[in-house]
Each structure stands twice: as structure tokens, then as C-alpha cells.
Design a protein that fits this description.
Elements: E1 4-10, E2 28-29, E3 32-33, H1 34-43, E4 48-55, H2 60-74, E5 77-80, H3 85-93, E6 102-105, H4 115-128, E7 130-136, E8 141-145, E9 148-153, E10 159-168, H5 169-177, H6 187-193, E11 199-202, H7 213-224
Parallel strand pairs: 1-4, 1-6, 4-5, 7-11
Antiparallel strand pairs: 2-3, 6-10, 7-10, 8-9
Helix pairs in contact: 5-6
Length: about 240
């Protein structure tokens, strides 16, 4: 069985969320922080051997005050992020254990995951070395400049990227080693720059990213449509299982 590490980037500024008290990964959603909903979809998997959440250094004190028990019980490593997403993922990638076969990067602000989607994208990555969830663009796209439509964009062959994005560990490490000063909004872009094909696995609109308050309300409804992950009690085997050490 292949082994996987999962990186959850949660170090962004959340400027579009516009909340004076919470960054989007840390806001409560159905009695649990958004990032914990995402994490819980991975911690019960036998093939996931390492889980890393990346936070902004300035958030560490508050994060640990709120979530130290969660990270301890679930065996989650907490890593400081950088100035942008690429630096944050690179910091976490440096902590991935060398015996791990694959690395999955999943937005901490995407709480509405189904096990079926994870199974499919993991399997595709095992076959091709690089795979990601995405959904086909269904709406009409307009290119706008100065508030005026200048072009209608053909949506054929256009897909909206989602996460998890999953790569053979060495492939992702090579992509980051050769990125130079290049910043990227997703990891697939860096792998594409190496000339390696990234396989698309169709996801779902339910796998939404919480960016605004409206997204949070949609996520509340989306969670009701998904099977609940197994809850982790005080006797959960992670407390004694060395797979997380």
C-alpha cells in the first residue's frame, strides 16, 4: 500500500473573508473549525501516515491555545508558513518524512470532502504520479476590463481546479526545488512547469472553498449532504499508534 502525507495550508490572510475575529480556516462550522472538518477526512485513512497544517507565525499562539488538544490527539504537525502559499507549502514539504510515497495538498478552507473523491484522486496519483480534483466550467465566461465585457471566453476544455492535489513525493519536491522565485496559486502549476502531466479527476461543486461569509453558509448546507466522518474519541488508536511519529 502506498503511503501519503497530507499538507493543509492555512496561513493566508483571509482578506476576502472580512471577519475581525476569525481567519476562514479557523471559524466555527457546525461546532468545529473549518480546518478540522478537512483534517478529519484524512486522519482515519490507513494510507495517510502524516498530516501537517501550515499556519501563519503570528497565528501560532492563538492557534495552539484553541487547537493544541486537537493536534495532539490527532497527531497533526503544525508548521509555520511563509509570505505566500508557495512558501508555506514548501515549509511543510521539507517536513514530510522521506519514506512517504505521495504528498497531497488540500486547502484547509475546503471542509466539504467525501471519502470517495479522496479515494479516486489518490488512486489516480498512484497510477500517473500527479492528479487533482477539478470540475468542468459550466457557466458562460466573460473577460471584463474596466467594468465592460471585452470578450466571451469559450468554456470548452476549461476546468476549475480544486484540492486535494496529489503528487509522488519526489516529483513535488523537484517542482518546488526548480520554482525559483515563482509563486503559484496551486501546486499543479509547478508540476506542469516540469513538463509532467497532471491527471484530472472530476470532483464536485460541493467541494467548495470557504472564501466569503456566503461560502460559509453554503458549506453548512453542503456538510449535511455528506456522510459524517468517524468521530475520534479519547481511546482513538492514534494515541498509541506509531504511524504518526
Amino acid at each position: 500500500m502506498s503511503t501519503f502525507a497530507v499538507i493543509l495550508p492555512a496561513a493566508g490572510k483571509s482578506s476576502r473573508f472580512r471577519d475581525a475575529h476569525y481567519k476562514k480556516p479557523f471559524i466555527p462550522l457546525e461546532n468545529r473549525a473549518v480546518w478540522l472538518h478537512a483534517a478529519e477526512r484524512f486522519v482515519n485513512r490507513d494510507d495517510v501516515k502524516q498530516l501537517i497544517v501550515v499556519i501563519a507565525p503570528e497565528d501560532r499562539e492563538e492557534f495552539m491555545a484553541k487547537f493544541a488538544a486537537n493536534t495532539a490527539i490527532l497527531g497533526i504537525q503544525v508548521v509555520d508558513g511563509g509570505h505566500h502559499r508557495t512558501e508555506s507549502v514548501a515549509n511543510a514539504l521539507a517536513r514530510v518524512r522521506p519514506e512517504i510515497d505521495f504528498v497531497a495538498v488540500h486547502d484547509a478552507a475546503r471542509p466539504c470532502l467525501a471519502n470517495e473523491w479522496i479515494d479516486k484522486v489518490f488512486a489516480a496519483a498512484e497510477t500517473t504520479g500527479a492528479a487533482m480534483l477539478a470540475i468542468p466550467v459550466r457557466g458562460t465566461l466573460k473577460r471584463v476590463r474596466g467594468g465592460v465585457v471585452i470578450e466571451t471566453v469559450d468554456r470548452q476544455d476549461l476546468w476549475e481546479a480544486q484540492t486535494p492535489q496529489v503528487f509522488r513525493r519526489q516529483l513535488l519536491m523537484d517542482a518546488y526545488a526548480q520554482r525559483g522565485e515563482r509563486a503559484a496559486t496551486d501546486d499543479a502549476f509547478l508540476v506542469e512547469q516540469l513538463g509532467h502531466a497532471v491527471t484530472i479527476v472530476e470532483g464536485s461543486p460541493i467541494n467548495l472553498k470557504v472564501t466569503t461569509k456566503e461560502d460559509l453558509r453554503l458549506a453548512q448546507q453542503a456538510l449535511k449532504a455528506l456522510p459524517k466522518p468517524k468521530l475520534l474519541g479519547p481511546a482513538h488508536p492514534f494515541a498509541d499508534d506509531d504511524k504518526w511519529r
